[in-house]
Specification:
By secondary structure, this protein is α/β, with parallel strands linked by helices. Helices cover 54% and strands 10% of the residues.
Length: 606
Amino acid sequence: MSDSYLSQALALHQQGKLGQALALYQKALHADPRSPDTLHLLGVALHQAGRSERSVDLVRAAIGLRPDSAIFLNNLGLILRDRMQLSEALDAFQEAVRLDPSHIEALQNIARIQTLTGRADLAIGSARKAMILHPWVVENAVVIGNAWRTIGAAEPATRAYTQALMIDRGHVEAWTKRGAVHAGAEDETLSRLANRDLSKAVCLGPDRADALSFLGYWHLGRQQFLDADHLFKRAIMLQPTHLAAHSGRAEVAMVRGDAGAAARLSGLVPVDRNTDPHLRFRRGIHLLANGEMKDGWSEYDFIYRKGDAVLRVGLPARWDGTDLRGKRLLVCAEQGVGDEVLFTSHLQEAVRAAREVILECDARVVSLFQRSFPKAWVHPYRRGKLNGRPIQKYDWIPAYRRPDTFAEAGRLFAQYHRSVAEADEGAHAWLRPDPVRVAEMRAWLDRLGPGPKIGVAWQSMKMTPFRRPHYPGLSGIRPLLREPGAKFIALQYGKGWQDELKESGHAVEVLEDLDTTDDLEGVTALVSQLDLIIAPSSTLVWIACGTGRPIWMLYNHPIFLNLGLDRFPGFPTLRGFPKPLLDPWDEAVDRTRAALREWLDAWAPE
């Protein structure tokens, strides 16, 4: 009787008639409580019905009766994965492979878990094993591509997806993901190829929300916002809980200058720890820009879980924000020197609280940070690559100085920047420039004659088509440079700007012996002696704040660091001159020029 119930239940289960199947599985189990097949299938069916609280116990019971079943173990892993018990899920998949080394689904699932937990380097190896055993299974190549794409390795990801398409030209996910690899590419040829692949995916799978979303992001990157929003809306119609599409609409709202709408749109879909960390991070940006700090910083923290984030090897437990008394804290370097300068604005709080702070940073700011934080042990980071992903090892820390806990510099900043009041209370100038260099810079500035000395910069070091709208360029700040009564000092960095400045004919002084890109000690000393700095969002802004100098920033709003206000909490010397991304720079520059005229009229030497 049990076998009859079981066979009928399985047939209904395969037809998608889950309710009827469950009733018969229950009868089969009542007839034979020790049937491993019944326990297993009932557990799977309950999980599919959203009742996974019992499903784990049932499948484990089946495995207890038939411990050599790789199928049972693989399905247990799937249930545990969906319950976000990732470590236990990985153990189940690995045991399935131990029992059956050619179990393709278990190998793929191991790779997926490893990708999800930030070990894409291991995932690539696991997926390659599946590919060797089953070279004509398209999903193996897709899983490899997904792992490479997670860590930002475009070329090997593209090769893997191309291999998948050689096996199956109609595989929508392969077309989608190959297009997604280059959706934000600056190179025009790669961008066109991305559009072709994504358009193909939409044609093959018009009901695929992921293909529509990725195509929407391609248009977003090209600043084709109406097209992007239309595609995101189509994706949401197909799949109302598709987070990437809601996040895309939030990005469009940010571009239009509406942080409130961006935060609302980002929050329409529930998230869990299985959600793409990049989307969680972007949600944090939207919330912070709208002044929602508690949830905003929590979501922002997912930046450190992205697949292309630095892989850190040899660390203690991550700091959970609790009391640091008696503990040695390692503060890990960020991925850019500008963020390192910004995020050390709250380092003194940690220095006062902890037994000792070890500060890891870019080599260009080691001496600056040693002087600014004399009680911290400052050391340059050592960054390498592992399968295209940045990796840092911490074997440079001697045994007698091993940290008890660690925090990324941005994590530390968030901990001490939890409210507007807290940010303002902690405001201070945190950088101490080299007094010898300061004297050199003061002498050079004095030789320029009387009058206020104003530092200026106008662009990023990388002026790509997608970054260009965030920077006014030299031509954009021309009206400022025409204001009489001041000496303008070039603080621009990167390559080629000197020639551009000479050709423009603008009266901007250049300190020829100063390498503004790599000599950050010199830049900090010079900034500390200027009367005013005017620049777009860049490292210079935070050096100016760190030295307590007045800094006027030209930027596109919304921006998360102003926390939904018209000022920047915690940075009293920073004054913003915002504009919507879609607007030209003219109006913002005109406002800056009017403010500059007033400032010059009122200026008096300190």
